[in-house]
Amino acid sequence: MTDNPIILWFRRDLRITDNPALSRAADTGKPIIAVFIDESDADKPLGAASLWWLHYSLTSLMNDLDVPLILRRGQAADILDELIQDTGADHVVWNRRYEKDGIERDTVIKSALTDRGLKVESFKANLLNEPWEVKTKSDTYYKVFTPYWRAAREVFTPDAPLSAPKNMNAYADDLRTDKLEDWKLLPTRPDWGSKMLPYWTPGSEGAREALTEFLNGPVQTYTNDRNRPDKKGTSKLSPHLAFGEISPREIWQACESVEQTDKFMSEIGWREFSYNLLYHNPNLATENFRSDFDAFPWKKDNEALERWQAGQTGYPFVDAGMRELWQTGWQHNRVRMVTASFLIKHLMLDWRRGEEWFWDCLVDADPASNAASWQWVAGSGADAAPYFRIFNPFSQGEKFDKNGDYVRRYVPELKDLPNKYLNRPWEAPEDVLEKAGVVLGQTYPKPIVDHKAARERALAAYKETRAEKK
DNA sequence: TGAAATGTTGGGGCG
DNA sequence: ACGCCCCAACATTTC
C-alpha cells in the first residue's frame, strides 16, 4: 500500500454505524489513522459525569473499531500537525460540531490544512438537519419550536443510515498513543462512578439496546408516562446521543416501523431545535437570549445553591430529583423542569448556576439542550415558558409521582410518611411525623423558603424587571 | 411542558 | 313549593 494515510478525527460521534466521516475514510481505501483528542483548549471542558461516561464510551468504541484508536491530549491543531508530519497523511475527515469554540477551532484547522494542500472534509452526522438548513419563509432561523419542527420534518430526507464499513485498513506503523487509564477520567477518592455504572451501558451496543427496549414497550404509553419519574417511561437515550453513540437518523429510522412514535420523535426535535438556537446564538449558555433579563435581580446565596445541589431544600420532590442526578448522573425530564424552576424562581438564583451544575453532573450534558432548556425554564429563552409559570414543588410531586415511589427511592428518610404528607412534611401533624421517624430540621430539612412567599417574591421581581425595561 | 385567584353553575339542604 | 345559601365542580382570568 503506497497510499498516503487518512486521519479520522473522532469527537462526540463515538460510533461506527451511520458515521459519515468514518464511512468516507473507509471508502477512500487509504490506511486509516483514527484519533480521539482530549482538547486542552476547549472553552467548556466536559463535566465530571461526562468524563466518567467518556471513559466507557471510548472503551466501547475501541472494541467496535477495526483499527486502533489513537488517544492524544492537547491542542487539536498541534496534534493533527504532528500526525500529518509523522505519517504523511494527506486527508483529514471529521463530523461537524456546533458549539462556538469547536466551530472556531475546526475552521482554523480546516483552512490551515487546506492551505498546505491537504484534503479536509467535514460531515453532517449528529443532527437530522444542519442548523442552517431549516429556514423560515423570510430566510431567518426559527425561534418557536412547533413551526421549527414542522419545517424540519419536511427538510429532512430520511436516507437509510450508513452501515458500519466492511473494510477498514489500519495504518501499518504503530503510533504513539496515550493509555486511556492515564487520562484518569474515572473518579477516585471518592469513587462515585461505580455506583452509577449499574444504571448505564455506555457505548453503541448499549444505545441500541436502550432504543430497542424502549420501542418494544414504553413508547406506546410515552405521551403520558414520559411525565412519570416513578416509571420507566422514557428512552434514556440522552447520554448515548450526547456522545454520538447512536445517530438521530438511526433513531428516526427505527421509529418509522413502530406505531405512535410522533411524541417521542418530537423530543428528538427539541434536541434539533436546541442546536438550531445554539448555532444562531453561540453564547446561549452564558447570555440571556432575551436581554431584558440582564436586569433581573438574581440573588447570590451560596448556601441556598449548595442545599439545592445536595437535595436538601426541604421540598421532597425537588430533593429527590437533585439526589437522582447526583446518584445516577441523570434526572427525569419532568423533574428537571421542577428543580430548575425551583432554583430560578423560588431561590431566585441565576439560571447559569443551574446550567453549570447540570453540566458537571449529567452524563447526558449537551451544549445545546442544557443551555436552551435552562433558558426555557428561566423565561429568558426563545419560545420560553412565560416567567409567571412557576411550578409548585409539592403539587408536581403529588401529580406525577402519585404513589410516592420516586420520592421514597431517593429521599428514604421520608419513606414511612403517608402519601398525604410525603410531598409536604411540614404540614404533617406531630404524631404522624413521629410515627414515620421524621424530625423536621434534623432528619429532614424544613422548607428552605415558604412556597407562597417565594412565588410572590419571584412574580414581583419579574414585574419590576419588565417595568424597568420599558 | 402551571398555579392561584376569581367567576359561574347547579344540586341539595333547609327554613 | 319556593327562595336562599352553601359549596363542590368546572371555567375563565390573571400572574
Structure commentary:
With 470 residues, this protein is of the alpha/beta class. It has three domains: 6-125, Rossmann fold (3-Layer(aba) Sandwich); 127-159 and 203-280, Serine Threonine Protein Phosphatase 5, Tetratricopeptide repeat, CATH 1.25.40.80; 291-469, DNA Cyclobutane Dipyrimidine Photolyase, subunit A, domain 3 (Orthogonal Bundle). It is built from 21 helices and five strands. The protein has helices at 20-28, 48-64, 76-87, 100-115, 145-155, 180-183, 204-215, 222-225, 238-242, 248-256, 262-280, 302-310, 316-328, 333-346, 351-361, 367-378, 395-400, 405-410, 419-422, 430-435, 451-469; strands spanning 6-10, 32-39, 69-74, 91-95, 119-123. α1 links the parallel β1 (6-10) and β2. The longest helix is centred in the middle third of the chain and has 19 residues, at 262-280. It is globular, with a radius of gyration of 24 Å. The structure holds a DNA duplex (15 and 15 nucleotides).
